[in-house]
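can u do me a favor
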């Protein structure tokens, strides 16, 4: 079964745009798990423009489902937060300072030594590690050499081609990358621009995906159909 982890960053973006505590980000995490999400994802950035570091601490106190913290592991503040809160999973993303949103995976060959070192830090703390990669066989092979537990396939390219009507060619490199990851014993996550239109086809082509992390599209849908309905609709797409 492919798990659905709901990224609640957008709740924090809305809260921060006005100040105060509405919407309540901790309540969003509670509701996500209450409405059937298999996990909750947050992606704190150094400028705390959406999820704040204190949000992560407060969510950790109440969460009963899987907790996934994404972020840039070159920031010591991020490393310290993950080791303090000890989520079930940390997803390492190669963001630059001030980046609007994640837009590429790790060069796992160029950064092998660094990734191997930082991954060992988190694994020694009992935290499962996933690293963000593009659907490139060499990058998947490089990921396996770092000692990571999983990869997260960066799916923006798939989503764009799917929307343009080229779904078979869109998913092909992801199938190849996922097959290589499976062969190498890596778990597989996926995320970025997955939505109700393209998710089912992606899952059908790569049924062994362990987890998808979805935030922006799911929260946008929730504005129209409600948060609970949106989560259930996405779970339905995963079969």
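np, heres the sequence
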């Amino acid at each position: 079964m492919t798990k659905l982890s709901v990224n609640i960053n957008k709740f924090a973006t809305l809260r921060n745009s006005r100040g105060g505590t509405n919407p309540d980000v901790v309540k969003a995490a509670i509701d996500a798990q209450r409405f059937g999400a298999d996990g909750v994802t947050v992606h704190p950035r150094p400028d705390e423009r959406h999820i704040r570091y204190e949000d992560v601490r407060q969510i950790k106190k109440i969460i009963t489902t899987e907790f996934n913290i994404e972020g840039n592991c070159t920031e010591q503040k991020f490393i310290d937060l993950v080791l303090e809160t000890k989520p079930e999973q940390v997803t390492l993303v190669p963001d630059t300072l001030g980046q609007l949103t994640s837009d590429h995976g790790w060069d796992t060959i160029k950064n092998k030594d660094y990734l191997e070192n930082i991954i060992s830090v988190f694994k020694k703390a009992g935290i499962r590690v996933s690293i963000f990669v593009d659907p490139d066989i060499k990058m998947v092979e490089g990921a396996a050499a770092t000692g990571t537990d999983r990869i997260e396939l960066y799916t923006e390219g798939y989503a764009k081609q799917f929307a343009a009507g080229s779904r078979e060619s869109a998913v092909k490199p992801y199938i190849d990358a996922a097959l290589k990851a499976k062969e190498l014993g890596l778990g597989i996550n996926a995320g970025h621009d997955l939505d109700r239109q393209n998710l089912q086809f992606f899952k059908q082509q790569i049924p062994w995906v362990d987890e998808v992390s979805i935030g922006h599209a799911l929260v946008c849908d929730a504005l129209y159909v409600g948060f609970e309905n949106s989560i259930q609709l996405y779970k339905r797409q995963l079969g």
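The domain at 3-237 is CATH 3.20.20.70 (TIM Barrel). hope that helps!!
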